[in-house]
Design goal:
Layout: E1 10-16, H1 24-34, E2 39-45, H2 51-60, E3 65-68, E4 82-83, H3 85-89, E5 95-99, E6 102-106, H4 109-121, E7 128-132, H5 138-147, E8 152-156, H6 160-173, E9 178-182, H7 186-193, E10 198-201, E11 232-235, H8 242-249, E12 253-255, H9 257-262, H10 265-273, H11 279-303
Parallel strand pairs: 1-2, 1-3, 4-6, 7-8, 7-10, 8-9, 10-11, 11-12
Antiparallel strand pairs: 3-5, 5-6
Helix pairs in contact: 1-11, 4-5
Length: 307
């Protein structure tokens, strides 16, 4: 990967905590190369509560922008001079550009997952959605799916009150939707799954894959046996989660967080650079993503002392 490293290089930071699972810095740098931008994205661990210090440092270094992951997507909002309305409402900003010292934020996770699901559906209905989780990405994803035809939402979350708060927010924003909320208990999930067109997994559960870490997984995935055969199973994580493996076993069409990240790149490049990307460039970004996943796995084995 060619990077010029001169005084004209635009410096971007990818920040979050933890960062071990993130693959997007390499993809971002590949995208910069594809659109012929002299820019560099550097991943940095920034812990919760350190945003003010980081922003001062970013301005001192004349950074051009910030890519954000958890736990900063909502915490960044008070520091912004401008914020896209939907990102503000759902407390989820994942891109910031710095223009003349002013911070301008936008949330693009929703459009990334929405486009991914719509492509997978191939014109099929997206009306009935099971949303698992009520964290930072869940609201923007629900809002984007609404714009693509979703009207009936069932939201399951470990803390039911948080699911209800998201449901209330969706009802305030969109008057013609139906929302039902519950916990992650099998009874609610099984009842909710029966007629869904889309099931979106928005939590950190199942990242290790089936059976890898039961403490960080669903107590039961039997509810997935109730999903109809046409249902699209989408996960914000990647590449192999227990949720996706069960969906694949059941013959459902699946999409993961890699494509959520890739399908928002068109808007990302337009937001930061005013640049358009082609389908071919998107496929090259996919190659970079797979390379980054492999590198992540190698680093993980090294940390475990397996190499």
């Amino acid at each position: 990967m060619r990077v010029k490293f001169n005084l004209d290089t635009k410096l971007y930071f990818l920040i979050g905590d933890p960062m071990e699972h993130s693959c997007t810095a390499l993809v971002n740098n590949r995208m910069f190369e594809l659109v012929n931008e002299n820019a560099l994205c550097v991943p940095v661990t920034v812990k919760k509560g350190q945003l003010a210090e980081f922003i001062r440092a970013a301005k001192l270094l004349h950074a051009a922008g910030i890519y954000l992951t958890m736990p900063h997507k909502g915490d960044i909002i008070p520091f912004l001079d401008e914020c896209e309305e939907s990102a503000r409402v759902f407390h989820s900003v994942n891109h910031v550009k710095i223009v003349d010292g002013r911070l301008i934020g936008i949330g693009l996770d929703g459009v990334g997952m929405g486009r991914t699901i719509e492509k997978a559906a191939g014109g099929g209905s997206l009306e009935k959605v099971l949303l698992i989780g009520a964290g930072a990405v869940a609201g923007p994803i629900a809002a984007d799916l609404y714009r693509r035809g979703a009207r009936d939402f069932k939201i399951a979350n470990r803390t039911v009150q948080k699911a209800e708060a998201l449901g209330k927010l969706l009802e305030e924003q969109f008057q013609d939707i139906r929302v039902e909320c519950g916990g992650l208990e099998e009874s609610f999930l099984c009842a909710a799954a029966a007629d869904r067109d889309v099931a979106v997994q928005c939590t950190s559960l199942g990242l290790g894959g089936a059976g890898k870490d039961s403490a960080q997984d669903f107590q039961s995935l039997d509810f997935m046996d109730r999903l109809p055969g046409h249902c699209i199973a989408a996960d914000v994580l990647y590449p192999k989660t227990s949720f996706l493996q069960r969906a694949w076993k059941n013959g459902l069409k699946t999409v993961d967080g890699m494509w959520m990240a890739l399908n928002q790149q068109e808007e990302v490049m337009r937001f930061h650079f005013g640049a358009d990307i082609t389908e071919r460039e998107l496929l090259e970004a996919e190659e970079a993503f797979h390379a980054a996943v492999t590198m992540r796995e190698v680093r993980a084995r090294r940390r475990r002392g397996e190499m």
